[in-house]
Amino acid sequence: MNKFYITTSIPYLNGRPHIGHALEFVQADVLARYNRLLGEDVWFLSGTDEHGIKISRTAQANGKSEKEFTDELAEEFRLVLKKLNISNNDFIRTSDKERHWPGVNKIWLELVAKDDLYKKSYQGLYCAGCEAFLKKSDLVDGRCKIHNMKGLDVVEEENWFFRLSKYKKEIKKKIESDEFRIVPETRKNEIINLINDAEDVSFSRPVESLKWGIPVPNDPSQTIYVWADALTNYISALGYASGDTRFNKFWPADVHLVGKDILRFHALIWPAILLSAGLKLPESIYVHGFINVDGQKMSKTIGNIIDPFSVIEKYSADVVRYFLLREIPSGEDGDFSYKKLEDRYNGDLANGLGNLVQRTVTLIENNLAGELIYKPAMIEEEMKNKIDQLFKEYIKNLDSFLLHESLGKTWELIGVANKYVDDHKPWISVKENPEKFLVTMNNVVFILYNVAWMLTPFMPETADKIFKTLGADRDAKTLENYKFLVQKTPSSLNASKGQGAGLFPRLEK
Ligand code: MSP
């Protein structure tokens, strides 16, 4: 059995979860669930990034201690994962002194042992939004390109520095050769273009400037830089410090899923830390884009932040998952709007999938007393070939982190089924040619069975409901190999009475 280790980035606890976080969680969840279907031993980690100046200031502004503030928000993130039906195996908080801090201490000491940390006086402009010192190229009119609302901190202090520049050649080589894969290609090129200019980075702040963090081992006058602290979550959670078997089994990560704004931390600083500590680099970094809202950047000032809880409450987890995964092209930016969501709902879910399930159930209910005994011999060769072709494309897209395309293939198959019903008119054949009616219904039910498997990583609850309707075995082990799904026609399917109807009722205006 192969292993598959996937992580999300860990969101800052300076605010509640928003729909952008939800996008990252659901994309990671599809990959985790897909790999479980392939029979991999999957470990899926998420968590929260809790230290640094930004969080400390926001807690203060809310009249709370950092601990109180982050404890409350961490619960919100745990809850949103649950509400979205995310199948993470673990959740790490960087404020966790037992699970996380020992890993950070250990890696710091490894860097010291390599002589990769040195102290120097430094003058610079610090952006609390980025949690990073900025270079001239990061500035527009003296403000941070990304967080231009607030002023920058002018800093003059003594910090520990990390010799990032020592590793940049090696990292570049590994990225170019795809030994360390950055997906999509455009992001790989972006990082290759800026790697030559990479300089050593400040890896600590004096306690007077930053107290809310992990103290530098053997130098309590300094606090570890929040990114050095946060990136280490990917190994601390596996028990890196305690020599845990989970670390030995699952490291290196197969996929770190991150947004485009934090790629350089993951594709430069993190691999440099790992090389310095003598650890393997992750296999790959998958980079997703940003969600805008009605064409505008999501921001507190504009007041257009979309709260995932209320969208899930209104439409259900699977509808939100479907929208995010289908509408936002993996790896690119996309747009959220209630209108787009409802159009997708009515078009794809109510009229497409919901209609297919509904009419299948109704035909069986009305004409076969609610029970169709499945006859594998009735499945047409042409139908098997069509499903096979679409399923192969579905897999190819999943393997290339084109999740929206995989869903597109699933909906092509749903379209094939709906057209098949329209063309074969079972409501007529049931009276004129009962044998033909049974052939039609068997083929439709067979497609539905395949559709349910294709939906499993994306919309697990919906897939389950369809399996129930079909009386099908949903144990993935019975598939033997998910990549050859259609060749394994189930021995028993039994579309049964009253199930699955009204899966996605049309929304009232
Ligand atoms: N704490 C760091 C990550 C540390 S990982 C060791 C951080 N946190 S964040 O809360 O700002 O962002 C968390 C994730 O959400 C990032 O991958 C980021 O790109 C993503 N998104 C933030 N806003 C987003 C959108 N509007 N759309 C999609 N994803 C967005 O960065």
Automatic annotation (TrEMBL):
Residue ranges constituting the Methionyl/Leucyl tRNA synthetase domain according to the UniProt record: 136-360
Enzyme Commission number, as recorded: 6.1.1.10
GO molecular function: ATP binding; metal ion binding; methionine-tRNA ligase activity
Main location: cytoplasm
Gene Ontology terms describing biological process: methionyl-tRNA aminoacylation
InterPro entries, per the entry: aa-tRNA-synth_I_CS (IPR001412), Anticodon_Met (IPR041872), Met-tRNA_synth (IPR014758), Met-tRNA_synth_2 (IPR023457), Methionyl/Leucyl_tRNA_Synth (IPR015413), MetRS_core (IPR033911), Rossmann-like_a/b/a_fold (IPR014729), tRNA-synt_1_cat_dom (IPR032678)
GO cellular component labels: cytoplasm
Methionyl-tRNA synthetase anticodon-binding domain ranges (all copies): 379-476
Record's keyword terms, sorted: Aminoacyl-tRNA synthetase, ATP-binding, Cytoplasm, Ligase, Metal-binding, Nucleotide-binding, Protein biosynthesis, Zinc
EC class (word): ligase
Pfam family, one: tRNA-synt_1g
UniProt cofactor(s): Zn(2+)
Subcellular location: Cytoplasm
Ranges of residues in domain tRNA synthetases class I catalytic: 15-122
Functional note: Is required not only for elongation of protein synthesis but also for the initiation of all mRNA translation through initiator tRNA(fMet) aminoacylation.
Family: Belongs to the class-I aminoacyl-tRNA synthetase family.
Protein name per the record: Methionine--tRNA ligase
UniProt organism field: Candidatus Yanofskybacteria bacterium RIFCSPHIGHO2_02_FULL_39_10
